[in-house]
Amino acid sequence: MIGSRQGIGMTSARTRDRLVKRLMDQGIRSEAVLNQIRSVPRHLFVDEALASRAYEDTALPIGLGQTISQPFIVARMTEALLAGFEGEKVLEIGTGCGYQTAVLAPLVKQIYTVERLRELMVKTRQRLRDLDIYNVQYRPGDGWEGWPKYGPYDGIIVTAAASSMPKKLLQQLAPGGRLIIPIGQPGQQDLTMVVNHPDAYEQVSLGPVSFVPLVQGK
């Protein structure tokens, strides 16, 4: 049962409040985002051996060469996406363990999420269903291709680093929409926000980050 892993302070309000305070000290201002960081049970998204570290502000391995993102980065990306969000649909590239999905899900109407590793996606889909998160559709596939069927999207959030800007994701971004994506090689990645204005794409740097690579192909 997903709710059975208890103890070691993981579910205490004090533990979660300490994490939220740290994020506020680092500049996260959105009450909606902070409330989600406080309420989502991050210890259920990591291996049981690492559960005692779940509310540290750090990335942790989740197997298959993937990681669960640092809470600050999840909050930063979510806050940046929603600051200009006026629509309903979000495309998520890189479902991973589902932590970013769980933070974002109550704040938008619908999420379409793409994950290259089918095994990971199957486990994540069950985990999110156990948490009563149902406004998510899942697709195994190449994140560079996006999910054209349900586009254009009001927001696109990418949880792995692309070596360059994926043109097909830009094509699936609705007018006025925002794309949040890490770009660059390991050690030189920049979290980038792209806003789709009527006459041009505006590109803004949100600071240095470190993500696993966005692998092309299935």
What does this structure look like?
- The chain has 218 residues and is α/β, with parallel strands linked by helices.
- The protein is 27% helix and 26% strand.
- The protein is built from six helices and nine strands.
- The protein has helices at residues 13-25, 31-39, 71-83, 99-104, 118-130, 167-171, and strands at 60-63, 66-68, 89-93, 110-115, 136-140, 153-158, 173-183, 189-196, 201-209.
- The strands form two sheets. It has a seven-stranded mixed sheet with strand order 5-4-3-6-7-8-9. It has a two-stranded antiparallel ribbon with strand order 1-2.
- It is globular and about 50 Å long.
- It starts with 12 loop residues before the first helix and ends in a 9-residue tail after the last strand.
Q: What does the oligomeric state look like here?
A: single chain
Radius of gyration of CA atoms, rounded to a whole number: 16 Å
Side-by-side strand order of the widest sheet: 5-4-3-6-7-8-9
Mean pLDDT: 92
Poorly predicted regions: 1-9
How many helical elements? 6
Approximately how much helix is present in the residues? 25-40%
Strand content: 25-35%
Number of strands: 9
Gross morphology is globular
Structural class: alpha/beta
- Major sheet characteristics: 7 strands, mixed
Write the layout of secondary structure elements.
Blueprint lengths: L12 H13 L5 H9 L20 E4 L2 E3 L2 H13 L5 E5 L5 H6 L5 E6 L2 H13 L5 E5 L12 E6 L8 H5 L1 E11 L5 E8 L4 E9 L9
Parallel strand pairs: 3-4, 3-6, 4-5, 6-7
Antiparallel strand pairs: 1-2, 7-8, 8-9
Helix pairs in contact: 1-2
